[in-house]
Write a structure and sequence with these properties.
- The chain is of the alpha+beta class.
- Among the domains are: about 100 residues, Trypsin-like serine proteases (Thrombin, subunit H, Beta Barrel); about 90 residues, Thrombin, subunit H (Beta Barrel); about 90 residues, Roll (Pdz3 Domain), CATH 2.30.42.10.
- Helices cover about 20% and strands about 30% of the residues.
- It has 7 helices and 20 strands.
- Strand 1 and strand 2 form a beta hairpin.
- It starts with a helix and ends in a 6-residue tail after the last strand.
Length: about 400
């Protein structure tokens, strides 16, 4: 056999092993690809991989469909029966405590959205410029809101008021009966032809407790009529300055916003115990309401006369001077202004007088004067001691009626 033939035979033997090898490799690649594809699909579906990890240990016992599931460990101080609404509610053997849903159903029909319209004419209903809230206190259509909402409305002006009442498609016109900037309370009267009106029940705000449940209803932003929010009484007797008047208000974390002004703040019994009137815009959960018991006489007087009658009036503006206000300053309460022909003017007080005492009470600030004033009634005579140009002068002041104040 020649060398050429041997080489040819050798090549034939090597070719005999190569073909089966290529077939095996090809089949293996196909099988591997199929397995890889199946694995990727299982990963994506969560049936395998980290998504199906159960953290099982060697002591884990398999639970069959017939076995009851094991109970989850519960914190020993947890209370599955706890209800914030129930916890914050107060109890009264003579009254039924209501749920928030029941309170909303009871009071919402009597809570109205108020819109102050400008450029009102016989042919033009006007353009809304302010919005707020209010609530009916009588079937005849008397309703309570805030003075600051209607303070720009004057008789004969081009302003008008319309009310959106829940359940009524047609707005109702209203007019101002009277308003009082000192308490930020106003009374409106809805069109009597559209009555009778649903009305609220007034409660006793003097009985409120810190932490007690309260519900606010109103028209926040002038667009979200009938909004109900829930909170608690955060604090009582918060002193807040309102256009120069100091008011002791209810603080609450029930959410209130612009447009809630004049709306009701309600207790657990569905009684109105406050009139929403302010919030701190730079913080959350700081809303305020006027205690209803502080203004019931104001509301009645506004309905009876259109103004607040019988409120003591001194007719003097006082400024407080601190000891370090300027070099040589003597701390005290100084007369900054006197109403012409008012009680202080008639008594002889003059600008620049430092008030030493009123009715025997030492005066160190304007708050002291307010306390003395509010302890008297119109017609009372009280002694006033002032210092003027280094001299002590005694005067007699007759307390006036606020309705007689020069506007």
């Amino acid at each position: 056999m020649s060398e050429v033939e041997n080489n040819k035979i050798g090549k034939e033997k090597k070719g005999g092993f190569l073909v089966p090898f290529l077939i095996i490799v090809t089949v293996s690649c196909i099988v591997f690809s199929m397995l890889q594809t199946i694995y990727v699909l299982r990963l994506a579906s969560g049936s395998t991989g980290i998504m199906s990890y159960t953290g099982r240990t060697e002591n884990t016992v398999e639970v069959s469909d017939e076995d009851e599931p094991s109970e989850r460990t519960v914190c020993p101080v947890a209370d599955p029966e706890f209800s914030l609404e129930r916890a914050a509610s107060v109890t009264d053997p003579d009254k039924e405590t209501l749920s928030t849903v029941e309170i909303a159903r009871l009071v919402s029909p009597a809570t109205v959205s108020i819109y102050i319209m400008q450029d009102v004419t016989e042919d033009n209903p006007g353009t809304p410029v302010f919005s707020g809230s209010g609530f009916f206190i009588s079937e005849e259509g008397y309703l309570v809101t805030n003075d600051h909402l209607v303070s720009d409305i004057e008789e004969g002006s081009d302003y008008g008021i319309i009310l959106n009442i829940p359940g009524r498609e047609v707005p109702v016109h209203a007019e101002v009966v009277g308003s009082d900037p000192q308490t930020d309370i106003a009374v409106l009267k809805a069109d009597g032809e559209e009555g009778p009106y649903p009305c609220v029940t007034l409660g006793d705000s003097d009985m409120l407790q810190v932490g007690e449940l309260v519900v606010a209803i109103g028209n926040p932003l002038g667009r979200l009529e009938g909004t109900v929010t829930v909170g608690v009484v955060s604090a009582l007797d918060r002193s807040v300055n309102n256009n120069g008047y100091t008011m002791d208000l209810i603080q609450t974390d029930a959410s209130v916003n612009s447009g809630n002004s004049g709306g009701p703040l309600i207790n657990s019994f569905g009684e109105v115990i406050g009139v929403t009137n302010a919030k701190v815009s730079t913080a959350e959960g700081l809303g305020f309401a006027i205690p209803i018991s502080d203004v019931t006489e104001v509301i009645e007087s506004l309905i009876h006369y259109g103004y607040v009658s019988g409120r003591p009036y001194l007719g003097v503006t006082v400024g407080n001077v601190a000891s370090n206000a300027y070099y040589g300053a003597i701390a005290g309460a100084y007369v900054a202004g006197v109403d012409q022909n008012g009680p202080s003017d008639l008594a002889g007080l003059k600008e620049g007088d430092m008030i030493i005492s009123i009715d025997g009470v030492q005066i160190t600030s304007s708050d002291d004067i307010i306390d003395v004033r509010d302890s008297h009634e119109p017609g009372d005579e009280i002694p006033v001691v002032v210092e003027r140009n280094g001299r002590t002068i005694e005067l007699t002041l007759v307390v006036g009626d606020s309705n007689d104040a020069v506007q």
